[in-house]
Write a structure and sequence with these properties.
242 residues; alpha/beta; Rossmann fold; 5-stranded parallel sheet; 4-stranded mixed sheet; 9 helices; 9 strands; 43% helix; 17% strand; elongated; binds guanosine-5'-monophosphate
Length: 242
């Protein structure tokens, strides 16, 4: 059966539904898990990878720019977008609303470009249901203490917000086993390398590039060269000798 997103993409059902389409990478972690910095490093390293800018009703933090970290909107505007079905997924997180714009995601993956979504664990579960071949990555802070230190050092949350985020963290962590990959973020550079490796490995999956591979292999068969000494086509036998 076609998933909701398949219908939007208007692609025919096939055995290799992802081929030619961009890959959707879904990244989650508790607040303060370091995923923002990590994703930024990965975007700098990996070409043809875009980032889905979410909509939120929370206020911008110092240094955040509308349209870069988030689109900051009022609750009324957010509800209008929900009513107009403009979100691929949306959720209440830490008392505010957050949502992924359907249009940007569909546009990127239809054009064959890979895209990263940064969503909470509820958003990740929704996306998994919508698009079974999305790739989910959980960023695990190395310890609760490190998480607390990161949130405090950020200095952007009120004491109440900080407390709420710290209380929610253990609940969010429990969902780690629903993800395909887990990166322990104890070292930003190593963690970014690991995420880059995951993206590159997913890109190399046969199921995502079957026809391209087939074309290359077929070109080899078409240009099979005869053995110079015998004039016969070289044949390989299978066996255990090599
Ligand atoms: P923050 O306010 O710290 O930027 O984000 C709070 C939480 O909201 C984080 O867990 C973040 O991943 C999540 N979040 C950000 N954008 C979205 C979104 O579009 N959808 C959902 N479900 N969660 C989001």
């Amino acid at each position: 059966m076609l998933s909701e997103i398949d219908e939007q993409l208007q692609t025919p059902l096939s055995d290799e539904p992802t081929e030619g389409r961009g890959i959707l990478f879904v990244v989650s972690s508790p607040s303060g898990g370091g995923k923002g910095t990590l994703i930024q490093r990965v975007l700098n390293k990996v070409s043809t990878l875009s980032y889905s800018v979410s909509f939120t009703t929370r206020a911008p933090r110092n240094g955040e720019v509308n349209g870069r970290e988030y689109f900051f909107v009022t609750t009324e505007r957010f509800q209008e977008m929900v009513a107009a079905d403009e979100f691929l997924e949306w959720a209440h997180v830490h008392g505010k609303l957050y949502g992924t714009a359907r249009r940007q995601v569909v546009h990127e993956i239809t054009e064959g470009r890979d895209i990263i979504l940064e969503v909470d664990v509820q958003g990740a579960a929704s996306v998994r249901m919508l698009l079974a071949d999305s790739v989910s990555i959980f960023i695990l802070p190395p310890s609760f203490e490190v998480l607390r230190q990161r949130l405090e050092a950020r200095g952007t949350d009120s004491p109440e917000e900080l407390d709420l985020r710290l209380r929610n963290a253990p609940v969010e962590l429990k969902d780690y086993s629903a993800f395909q990959y887990v990166i322990i973020n104890d070292d930003a550079e190593r963690a970014a390398d690991q995420m880059t490796a995951i993206i590159q490995a997913e890109r190399a999956r046969l199921s995502r590039q079957g026809s391209r591979v087939k074309r290359v292999v077929e070109a080899f068969t078409a240009s099979e060269t005869p053995d110079a000494s015998t004039g016969q086509t070289v044949e390989r036998s299978s066996g255990s000798s090599n």
